[in-house]
Amino acid sequence: MLRRVAHGVQLAQHGRFEDTVFLLTDARARLRGHPITASAPVVPGVLANLGLAQTLCGRYGPADDDLREARALAQERRLPLMDLVVRQNQGCLALHRGDSVSAIGTFLDLRHRLPANRRDALHVDLAEALLAEGLVEEAATALHEGAWSDDGAAAPAALLVEAKLRLLDGSPTRAVELIRCVRRSNGTGSLWHRLAVRLEHMAHRACRNSRPTGPAVTPGTPGTVDATGTLATPGAVAHTSAPGSRVTPDTPERCSPSPIGPSLAAGAGVTGAPEAFAVAGDGGAPEAIDAARSAGPLEWAEVALALRAPLVAPEAPVRDGTAHRALRALARGSDTAPGAWAGPAAADPHVVRAGLERALLHGDAAAALEWADLGRTWAAPLVPGPHAPRSAALLALTERYRAALARGTDPRVGARRWESERWRALYTSGPAARPDRPAAPVVPALVERLADRAFVHLVRASGDLVAIVTTSTGVRARPLGPFRRAARALARFAHEAPRSHGAPTSAGDTVHALLAPVLSLVGDRALVVAADPALGDPPWGMLPALCGRTLSLVPTARFWAERTAPAPTPRRVLLVAGTEPAGARTEVAELAGLHPSAHVLTGARTSPEDVLAGFGRADLVHLAAHGRVPDDAPLLASVELPQGPLLACDLRDAPAAPAVVTLSTCWSGRGFATAPGLPSGFVGALLARGTRTVVASPVPVEDAATGAAMRAFHRALVAGTPVPEAVALHLGRSGFCCFGA
Q1: How many CB atoms neighbour CB 151 within 10 A?
Q2: Is 371 domain-assigned?
């Protein structure tokens, strides 16, 4: 009997799920009254595997019955590991039934409960669930964290999920290589083979008529799958600070998944045209190259929606979701702007991208701007922001991270664990529902309130960077060249500029040429800029094309349009200095001369609690200290104080929000351009708390030069100069940016 069960599990490893269902159903019937059922794990183990196989065959009702019975038996017989395994398989069932949010919550809750040797399958399942919600970058990260076996082989589900991610990212060559790896390793009777064939057809559809300008990726070793003796995935189976700076040191053939991570999906789940990957020289490093648009926006969006669907038997029920209906309505209608017709699909990234690109193709820049706003906010309910739910575990991890910083030990593992718990807390408590329809149009209010300013939204469309420029006279769009090239140029500039001491750089020249079409439209107007998060956090005020120009950075047009009331004059001032760098106390002492009635915190006993309490009694806050921002958890950005670091996530506990906060530190402007979702880091936390304007630098700054620049900046504020203008005059060249209204 057990050999029959083991054979059914072995068939599942090779994708023969129909045969698995037949064998395990028969075994379940034969087990009734059999002496072997006295062994506690046998029956729940059979039911757990049977339920997962039924799920992958599209038989959701029987799968639900089997998994419910399996879990009841696991709990009755006190089998905690079996209970976790069944829960994971129930998450897979929820995913295939269309409840991906519930599935994400289940998988995140299991992430640190399952034994390490069982987490690879969980990471694949989590990647599929995130992908179903359009969270492409997060899916790539989840797959990168797992999907590896000790000998380098990967399960077919992991390879196919990576192939889907590669296709969504516009990398068809590597995707087809992975797909063919699965086809070669599984017979024609296998579900994996059938899924691979279907994915390959979709890959050819996505790449139709593409004209890559460089060589394709050199195929790697053809591969097959791992055989571990357990049921195949998806689902589980039953069985330093530089001197003078303000920064702290922060058998068969086998096929393995590529080391992919957050950088894979630079468009945050709303990618444009597929692009091929080329091999640079002999080093084998892939470099994105331009390719022709393979399909119209609506056709590509349909392909993307199909790629995001979970891996399931082709004969399983197919859902006609709101996103598909919205695309059909967009194709039929003459209105290119988002409206009530889109319903909840206005929060789907590929519907948003299709709407944006279609509006641009029709020459409707105003409609494109409405879609561009949605492109930044669609994921807000799905990604934990500054005010996401907090669990007891999250609070404990926060204090553990704070203690690690105070001890000077490496906090990176703690930061990753904290971010993971933040996601778990959001999804186990239930994320906010997506809106039923998009908000009212923002362009009319924006045009009315701009006066002598220009609003520039830099977006990705059809593989290009496009500037949508709005002034009081209307809305226009200008293409600025390949998006990836622009993103690389801005990244190079952000790396080179702080070290150039104002000298021209090649990256600066490139960016200047890139922005020339925008400058011709805006003239000498002050700018309000929203940018695609994939462009990162460059020091915009240091760009040669923008140096000295009044500029405010905002996440969306709606964010700015809702905050255009005249700024109040700051009367209550809080000045805070950390123990380091050397110039922090001197800087604050000199600023106290400009603000005679300011409350000053510079003592050795200054704590984060003191600063938060001071926030509630101030209109203007200035912090001078060392700053750091962890790459994976920008809400753990910190400012060093004598009695411990103040973290960005602490700011939600401030009794009130000052109108203006100046962070005279390195790096504290990083995290604003998080993708997807709302701004994060210190800037995002302050804006979410209600602060109107934040002044911060996303790059390292020099201690001595910063002190002098800050004195000039505050003199301008005292004289009545608006914050954005004062930043442009005195701080932009040092790397500081003005965030908010």
Answers
A1: 9
A2: no
